[in-house]
Amino acid sequence: MSLLTVREASRRLGVSYSTLKQWIYKGSVRTTKTDGGHHRLTELEIERLLERHGDKPTKAQQVNRARGEASIAISGRNQLQGIVEEIRSDGLLSQICLRVGDQMLTAVITRDAVEALKLKRGDTAVAIMKSTEVMIARETNL
What we know:
alpha+beta; 2 domains; 4-stranded antiparallel sheet; 30% strand; DNA binding; Transp-assoc_OB_typ1
């Protein structure tokens, strides 16, 4: 059974190092102490904490963890999941058309990003919007 340092565990849980240390001091997190007095957490304890906070890992996250790959959560609330309908690349940029319900959303990202994400037609993807202003328009009869 592998043991994680507090820093490694905090990354996996998506909380700060100091937050996890406070949980340990309060006794809400089970740890093992090394001979030097350092706290270590088991994989089982990480899973228990994720489940307790309603963040049970998905199958993909479990596979990523087993491979040692990171998965991330994002704070953006404006997220739309859809299906990649089309990818057009030219030079450094790519245009991605994502079908979200009966609507089409188009984004321009770098070609490198498309390759890094391994995007292809038919994949499920999430569009994340960040905006400080939203405007609403209505057609009027003049």
